[in-house]
Amino acid sequence: MEQQLTLPLIPLPEDEVFSTFYPNGSEMAIFALHEVLKNPETEFIYLWGGKNTGKTHLLHSACSHNDQLSLPVALLPLTQRRYISPEMVEGLEELSLVCIDDIDEIACDDKWELAIFDLFNRIKEKDRATLIITGNQPPKELGIKLPDLISRLSWGEIYQLSPLKDEDKLQALQLRALQRGFELPEEVALFLVKRVDRDLRTLFEVLNRLDRASLEEKRLISVPFVKKVLSL
């Protein structure tokens, strides 16, 4: 079963935890996240990078960590802001952890920019919650209009995440397979990277599909089996 977050309720993927994240140069960011969750003296961490750099995975990992400890958390995916409102950030300063994904999505939205700015101030005043935010650019290049929010986004520790190269995707697929309880042969991982959409999230979804199919048919995952399941 998938875990549930509070304010708002967002399902946490069980396979997006720290142990399934392939770092590829992001070790400092991962270390900082572990440290702030263990001893939350740093009030704010900002992670930035392009598509498929693992920003959302790390937010899910942080939320899962605190959720496992029965600490209240909130995840706001701003790519889905049409389903949520700026008023939903009210009271989040009372939680242990607040994660805001893709803050670039609310650039030039006056209500949202002000709501996030006010949340920063309440978190600092309460000194209870840790805030982790992701974006696709450094704070000053997000296109945000509110100068004070740009300043707040530059307050804490800032880490850039880089996309995986194809050889790293092989390792990431094999790591995810081990997390699911099976070994993925290198030739199969290479075949998937070459023949399937190289978007890492898509590759992981395909891996999950292959895992389910192999269990149903009681067959090992091989290149011929992959071709059959994916109709390639």
Automatic annotation (TrEMBL):
Domain named Chromosomal replication initiator protein DnaA ATPAse: residues: 17-157
GO biological process terms, semicolon-separated: DNA replication initiation; negative regulation of DNA-templated DNA replication initiation
Positions of the Hda lid domain: 166-230
InterPro entries: Chromosome_initiator_DnaA-like (IPR020591), DnaA_dom (IPR013317), Hda (IPR017788), Hda_lid (IPR055199), P-loop_NTPase (IPR027417)
Record has Oxidoreductase as a keyword: no
UniProt keyword annotation of Disulfide bond present: no
Entry superkingdom: Bacteria
Pfam families xrefs: Bac_DnaA, Hda_lid
Keywords: DNA replication
Recorded family membership: Belongs to the DnaA family.
Alphabetized PANTHER family for the sequence: CHROMOSOMAL REPLICATION INITIATOR PROTEIN DNAA, DNAA REGULATORY INACTIVATOR HDA
UniProt name for this protein: Regulatory inactivation of DnaA Hda protein
